[in-house]
Protein: Cation transporter
Organism: marine metagenome
Amino acid sequence: VDLPSFDTGRQNRLRFWSLVTYLPWLFLQVVLANLHVAYLVLRPSAMHPQIIRVKTRLSGDLAKTTLGNSITLTPGTITMDIQDDELIVHALSEKVARELANGQMERRVARIFQKTE
């Protein structure tokens, strides 16, 4: 599937199989994050809200938006802004912030998109 890119004359090539495998993985992350937020509600002392900057190597606006929306869909996080190669994210706890910093979600989103001439 070819989608127009918002930032260049190139096309974003959507890797269908990567998208198909990403969606169940994201659903699992949402379920796990729900459990973590429930834990935080029961133990408010474990809650350490913070605003973090998450660096990204994603190049297209659509890929960055997909990452930002995936972060926002995950309970306990919200993408507040996307600035160049950084996402500004509010995280409810240090655990959530560390998980975002490890880059697993970004790597999975990167697999969905590839640039073509």
Summary: Residues 1-9 have pLDDT under 50 and may be disordered.
